[in-house]
Design a protein that fits this description.
There is one protein chain. It is built from 34 helices and 26 strands. By secondary structure, the chain is an alpha+beta fold. An eight-stranded mixed β-sheet has the order 19-26-25-21-22-23-24-20. It has a six-stranded antiparallel β-sheet with strand order 8-7-6-5-11-12. A four-stranded antiparallel β-sheet has the order 1-4-2-3. The C terminus is likely disordered.
Length: 908
């Protein structure tokens, strides 16, 4: 057994990472609750005397190809049933007495834990509020068993570590009756910046924070001065305290405390000072757990701040331009690994549209040339995934007036989880600001132009809508495969000019949404301060049925038609989706086929991953329609969207009247109209991309006929400029095969990577260890075991049901549809869902808007949803509170990993 008075060299060998750090903190004079340690030698003696050595070694050797859960379960059974032996039992009793007896925490301390390369954070078990010798002994056994838990075995495998754990020590530490507790990072854990400290705090014990169940307060401090830079007051609905038995007692936090920062200025000053001292003692930034009780600051443990680094060792922080990459709601349009052709076509489209937007606001001359420098880079393509290059979007928003308000709403509408600082935001300009009178006149001109377009945006949308479909008709009814390739190529360039480049002025509509929704949120905060979080989004929702919901109702009509014809119904129920169209034709069901053809003609481009050029739509492959139709065949509640809403109106009727209500409704009407128009324009975008998809596929077949490609679909592995080069005489056809081979290998490697949803780089993104530090790793993300997840409330209502975790739209059978991201093609799958949970996205993404129209409880931005929750888990979704609670795990005979419909590729 080890105590604070033990020899440091013995502690270094036997105490494990957590124990070594406790010994260092105590010896350095910090206030650390009384502790003792059952060293690695105690566990080794237990294994040796009970005969577990050989059993565990054989289990790990035989389990290399087995399910990690099976290995973990068997290891736990062996460890929890093996005889302790008198000497080991006496050592546990002595350690309990040395820790003060009474109520203690029993914490695992792995041999490799809290190291500079591998933290093992959260991989082993710890138990709070443990009383009595028998309970302590049982928890010590469970700590030992956690050395072989499924999550720790996967953690070791993902990092190339051998399965042999090297043993596990156990810390027994006196429980502190914390009034407040939390974590202090002496470097920003997301970026590694050492010029700031990050403090997270909750009321009571830190278990609520660590488990993710409590929305903590977060304060960023200047590392040099300790002055707060940013402060976020978390909701802190609950607190965890020591109860009368093992574990924690959960109780509600008073409303006044929930809205108040849990730390005083003096608390922050003490934490800042302690952070500096502890970092100096270790010579590296630290992740420090702390608690405040009866006015005393207790240090519970400290470990190095670990950030992902290259396998060869940590790379120095590179110099160069800072960029923030965020997949937020761009993942709604471009999910997972995206082909080079899709990315370059999208990036080219965005560049043309937003340059046109700048011109529509009166930007000319040198300022327009500066805009052209960043509009081609609004999107990034990192290891095959599409990200917003976020700073450029702030620049785009700044072209319109009311930048401070609009950038906040931009963050909400994009689903950006973390705001940038006001200081950084103020440095981002679309072009170099002009000084003096000339600059003021330039800003005034843009404001006047924007105001005019803002006031007349509805008329502009109508005009654009009419002109779009007039031009679209020219491109839609063409057999591009029958045309010479150079003719199809010319038509593609014409489509870009006539449909895409004219889109720029319509971006005023997005600015109108930002401004009107921002003003609506501002009025809500001032006049309805107690309104629930979902209220503003519900109030701004388009009134009545919008164009986005039309495929839902059309599919329901098609399903009703099938139910009315028993022969058609029988055929659909027994025929595979890929064969259904031909089977209907062979059976002579011409009337129903005509209805199917009409649906495809109207909505054929509205399909999952509709903007990814490499994914066939319903025109190319109608099987997807029959998949959705099969899900819609059961009788459903045909409630219309007008009948399903009303929560926002009812709340307004109760809480807001008179002149304020009139003003509120004027702003609300503007927001609702703008969102309705945006959904119409998104359908136009879908059709434009659909026409381009048909052209590019025809160009692929033309290149195959010319011998430039081995297969027509290799065209998706080319960039748009390379296809242009082939038809403009700027690239030799024989180069294309080599490019395709290189890209195919690269995309296969990219698909195996775990992609973070947000990260920063400096300089060239792929160099200097940027992506390694950002967390680009191979293998799936590990589960933390959190039982309640939180996101942004989107549509009120409470639903319970079984989780259906999927990356493709499918029938949920009344369950809860849970996915990493959605796209407009998911709309037809919504009516069968009791609730909708989306890990990424925002309340203004397409599917979220439609879900509100259908009255489906919805929560978005639920971090870790597809990692933490498996298909078959029983969930409760509260769309008003933004919570997703795991009520029960899947049954043991539920879907296996191979059968599970959850994402096979982690983020995104």
């Amino acid at each position: 057994m080890l105590t604070p008075s033990s020899d440091p060299s013995l502690v270094a060998r036997q105490a494990g990472g957590k124990g070594r750090n406790l010994h260092t903190l105590t010896a350095s004079g910090f206030d650390v609750p009384t502790w003792s340690i059952l060293g690695l030698d105690v566990f080794a003696e237990f294994c040796r005397d009970s005969g577990l050595d050989e059993d565990l070694a054989r289990l790990l050797a035989d389990g290399r190809d087995a399910n990690a859960e099976e290995v973990a379960e068997e290891a736990a059974r062996l460890i929890e049933t093996a005889p302790l032996g008198d000497h080991v039992a006496d050592a546990i009793a002595l350690a309990y007495r040395e820790a003060g007896g009474g109520t203690v925490a029993v914490r695992s301390s792995g041999a490799e834990e809290d190291g500079e390369r591998h933290s093992f954070a959260g991989q082993f078990d710890s138990f709070l509020n443990v009383r009595g010798q028998d309970e302590v002994t049982a928890r010590v056994r469970r700590c030992w068993a956690s050395a072989f838990s499924a999550r720790s075995l996967r953690y070791r495998a993902q990092r190339g570590l051998p399965p042999d754990t090297g043993g596990l020590a156990v810390v027994l530490q006196r429980m502190v009756a914390a009034e407040r507790s939390g974590v202090l990072f002496t470097a920003d854990p997301t970026t590694g910046r050492t010029d700031r400290h990050v403090v997270s705090a909750v009321f009571g014990l830190g278990e609520g924070l660590v488990s993710g169940a409590v929305d903590a307060d977060t304060v960023v401090l200047d590392a040099a001065t300790g002055e707060p830079l940013t402060t976020i007051v978390g909701d802190k609905q609950e607190r965890y305290d020591a109860g009368s038995g093992p574990g924690c007692h959960v109780s509600p936090v008073a409303d006044t405390d929930r809205t108040t920062l849990s730390l005083t200025g003096a608390d922050l000053a003490r934490l800042h000072e302690a952070g500096i001292r502890i970092s100096d003692r270790y010579g590296a930034p630290q992740d420090i757990e702390w608690a405040i009780a009866e006015g005393n600051l207790w240090i519970l443990q400290s470990r190095p701040v670990t950030t992902p680094a290259p396998a060869a060792g940590p790379a120095p922080e590179p110099d160069g331009e800072l960029r923030i990459w965020d997949n937020s709601n761009i993942i709604e349009s471009f999910s997972g690994v995206v082909s080079p052709l899709t990315y370059t076509f999208a990036a080219d489209t965005y560049a043309k549209v937003y340059e046109s937007y700048a011109r529509a606001l009166g930007v000319r001359g040198e300022q327009l040339r500066e805009v052209r420098e960043w509009t081609p880079h609004l999107l990034g393509h990192i290891h095959g995934r599409v990200y917003y290059n976020l700073f450029h979007w702030y620049r785009m928003v700044r072209m319109a007036p009311l930048y401070r308000l609009n950038r906040r709403v931009l963050e909400k509408s994009l689903g950006v989880a973390e705001s940038i600082s006001d200081e950084l935001a103020d440095t981002l300009h679309p072009f170099t600001p002009r000084p003096g009178l000339r600059g003021r006149l330039s800003r005034l001109t843009r404001t006047v132009i924007f105001t005019r377009r803002f006031l007349t945006v509805r008329k502009s949308v109508e005009t654009f809508h009419r002109d779009f479909y007039r031009a679209y008709a020219v491109f839609n009814h063409v057999d591009y495969d029958a045309l010479p390739g150079d003719d199809t190529y010319r038509r593609l360039r014409r489509l870009q000019r006539e449909l895409i480049e004219k889109w720029g002025p319509m971006q005023v509509l997005d600015a109108t949404i930002l401004l009107s929704v921002g003003l609506l949120a501002l009025l809500t905060r001032r006049w309805l301060p107690q309104a629930p979080e979902w209220f503003t989004w519900a109030a701004a929702a388009p009134g009545g049925a919008v164009e986005s919901t039309e495929p839902v109702w059309a599919l329901r009509e098609l399903a009703a038609r099938a139910r009315a014809d028993s022969d058609v119904l029988d055929l659909l129920e027994r025929t595979p989706d890929g064969e259904a169209y031909q089977a209907l034709s062979d059976a002579g069901r011409t009337g129903f086929l005509a209805a199917v053809d009409a649906y495809i003609a109207d909505y054929g481009y509205r399909s999952p991953d509709e903007l990814k050029l490499e994914v066939p739509d319903l025109h190319d492959d109608p099987a997807g329609l029959f998949t959705l139709l099969r899900d819609a065949l059961p009788e459903t509640d045909e409630t219309t969207p007008q009948e399903r809403g009303g929560e926002a109106d009812a709340y307004l009727d109760e809480h807001l009247r008179g002149p304020r209500r009139l003003v509120y409704e004027r702003v609300r009407a503007k927001a609702r109209a703008a969102l309705t128009d945006r959904e119409r324009l998104r359908f136009c975008r879908t059709r434009a991309f659909g026409a381009a998809k048909r052209m590019l596929r025809a160009l692929g077949r033309d290149l195959e006929r010319a011998g430039a490609l081995d297969a027509w679909d290799d065209v998706f592995l080319l960039r748009l400029d390379e296809i242009k080069g082939a038809y403009e005489g700027m690239i030799v056809h024989t180069e294309l095969r080599d490019l395709v081979a290189v890209r195919r290998r690269q995309l296969a490697a990219d698909a195996a990577l775990h992609a973070p949803s947000r990260f920063t780089t400096r300089g060239a993104p792929y160099w200097s260890g940027n992506l390694e530090r950002a967390g680009w790793t191979s293998g799936p993300a590990a589960r933390s075991g959190a039982r309640e997840l939180r996101g942004i409330p989107c549509c009120p209502g409470v639903a319970e049901g079984l989780a259906v975790v999927t990356d493709t739209p499918r029938d949920t059978g009344g369950g809860i549809l849970l996915t990493y991201r959605t796209d407009p093609g998911w709309v037809a799958a919504l009516p069968s869902a009791a609730a909708l949970v989306i890990e990424r996205g925002s309340p203004l993404t397409h599917v979220a808007v439609v879900a509100r129209e259908l009255g489906i409880p919805t929560v978005v931005q639920v971090e870790g949803a597809t990692t933490e929750i498996r298909t078959g888990s029983r969930l409760r979704v509260d769309g008003a509170a933004g919570t997703v609670t795991v009520l029960a795990d899947p049954p043991v005979d539920g879907p296996t990993a191979a059968e599970d419909t959850s994402r096979t590729e982690t983020h995104p």
